Amino acid sequence: MSSPIQVGENSIEDAKLNPEPDQRRQIAASAGVDQLLRTGYIRLSTKGRLTGLPHIVQLRYTWMNGSFHAISGSPSSDWVLNLIKRPLAVVRISDFLYEVTAEVLGGQGADSVKDQFRRKYGRSLVERWYSKSQMVVRLTPTGTCVKRGGSAGELGARSTFGHWKKTRAGGYYDAVARAFDSAAEEYDFTISHNYINTWIRRRSIEVLLSRVEPDDFLLEVGCGTGAESVEIARHVRGLIALDISQAMVELLSAKVRARGLEGRILPLRLAASDLPKVRSVLAGRKIRVAYSFNGALNCEPRISEFVSHLADLLEPGGTFICSVRNTLCLTEAFAHAAVLQYARMSPRKRQPTMVSVGGRDIPSSYYSTRDFAEIFGERFKTEEMIALPGLLPPAYLNDYYLRLGSLTNIVERLDRVLSRVFPLNRYGDQTLFVFRKIA
After folding, report:
1. What is the DSSP string of 95-143?
2. Is 80 among the domain residues?
3. Is residue 260 one of the residues assigned to a domain?
4. pLDDT score at 150
5. Which of 132, 229, 252, 332 is spaced 20 to 30 A from 287 at the CA atom?
6. How far apart are CA 186 and CA 97, in angstroms?
7. Tell me: the pLDDT tens digits for 208-261?
8. Largest CA distance in the chain
């Protein structure tokens, strides 16, 4: 049986988001003008003028006279309108972040930027995308850049578990919370720009909605920024959404206010093992359906305690639907074997597995389907296992999968059928479990 992570007194050392002046100069030098000129895109984060939520776009740009310059394909683009209302933003290039101020350029300044665009990207591309646009924006850094890594995904972690144990400086839950805090602002952008991740999200929601009633009040464990919460809340009476990350909970709270969902979604900052604290909100009521998606429980070391607390909150015969990452993924093994990367065929064999979240590496416990079902076995009956996905590869292989072109439609139709069938249903990137509480 896979062993959950042992909870200790220390956690991974945080990368400083605001380095000292000498460190800032070193970071700025490491970024270098050469990198600024070579990179094809920047990622621009603005504040939504109506919602106040982060709005992130990927833009072509040029670097001139110490500033970034971007051209909008339309003067009514959201990022442009956001900057007109609030001309402050953040630019990311690779692992470097710049706070910037924005101003709209016209006349000769705008013409110079367009000339630079033609030299960098080619005349035909510029004419195709920007010929009708008169909106040229200068983004001027207000200081030196700050280094903060992005999420590298599975196989992207740079630390080993042994190194993590030696360098941690707090509790495991603190390390997980800080990692997801760091990932929060860009989390929705990262997920939405990965086709396999969005496919997994749709499939998870479909399975859940097939088992809920309009009058249900649900419990979500590991809500993240609440993309699932907002969608699911439209189909039920309401839900309580828990997450260990304060930044994630704050983003969901902002979405609740922006979308008028007060009274439908209640975000709470709690770890999965903190479920007993939900009782005060329920005021004696029981939950009929609870769920946890996208491997949130892989980062819960007290998984047995969680199972016991969950069973106490669910009504007799209640349902729990959750997805966890597996120790063996067949499509991952086949994909690496196909390109002769035999050493990468079973990267999840040793547990815990280090994963990259928000530029920070944290350990996560993956499970075989048998082991995970056994953990729930005393209080729950396993009704169904669904590979998530079964034929599509893990999300970090998204770009390779999309090269299949029109064949992806065939793969996905087959996946919907075969991912429920033994033995494939046990060896996806994740497994979606449907548990029924033993009365």
Report:
1. TEEEEEEEEEE-HHHHHHHHHHHHHHH-HHHHHHHHTT---EEEEEESS
2. yes
3. yes
4. 60
5. 252
6. 12
7. 999 999 999 999 999 999 999 999 999 999 999 999 999 999 999 999 999 999
8. 75
Residues 180-196 have pLDDT tens digits of: 999 999 999 999 999 99
Number of domains, the chain:
2
Q: How far apart are CA 120 and CA 117, in angstroms?
A: 5
Mean pLDDT of the chain: 88
Q: What is the pTM of this model?
A: 0.87
318 and 388 part of one domain:
yes
d(CA 186, CA 149): 12
Looking at per-residue pLDDT, the higher value among 370 and 38 belongs to: 370
Which CATH number fits the domain that encloses residue 74?
Answer: 2.30.110.10
Q: Using 50, 70 and 90 to split pLDDT, how confident is the model at 28? A: very low
Q: Starting at the edge strand that comes first in sequence, how are the strands of the sheet with 287-292 ordered?
A: 265-269, 238-243, 217-221, 287-292, 314-325, 430-437, 380-388
Closest CA to 61 of 131, 125, 114, 22: 114
Q: Which two tokens stand for residue 270?
A: 């709690």
Domain shared by 189 and 311, yes or no: yes
Residues 117 and 170 in one domain: no
Task: Examine the domain organization and report whether 165 and 309 are in the same domain.
Answer: yes
Do 355 and 220 lie in one domain? The reply is: yes
pLDDT for 347 equals 85
The pLDDT value given to residue 54:
92
Does one domain contain both 232 and 309?
Answer: yes
Q: How far is CA 393 from the centre of its chain?
A: 17
Spatial separation of the C-alpha atoms in residues 265 and 219, rounded to whole Å: 10
SS3 category, 32: helix
Peptide bond into 19 cis (omega under 30): no
Q: How far apart are CA 23 and CA 14, in angstroms?
A: 15
Would you say 253 and 224 are in contact if contact means Cβ atoms under 8 Å apart?
no
CA distances from 178 to 15, 157, 244, 413 (A): 10, 16, 9, 38
- Contacts (Cβ under 8 Å, ≥6 apart) of 32: none
* Amino acid symbol at 211: R
Q: What's the rounded Cα separation, in Å, for the pair 6 and 360?
A: 19
For residues 66 and 146, the model is more confident at: 66
Please classify residue 49 by burial: count the beta carbons closer than 10 Å to its beta carbon, then call 0-12 exposed, 13-18 middle and 19+ buried: middle
Domain that holds residue 114: 21-147
pLDDT at 427: 96
- pLDDT of 30 > 50? The answer is no
Same domain for 42 and 122: yes
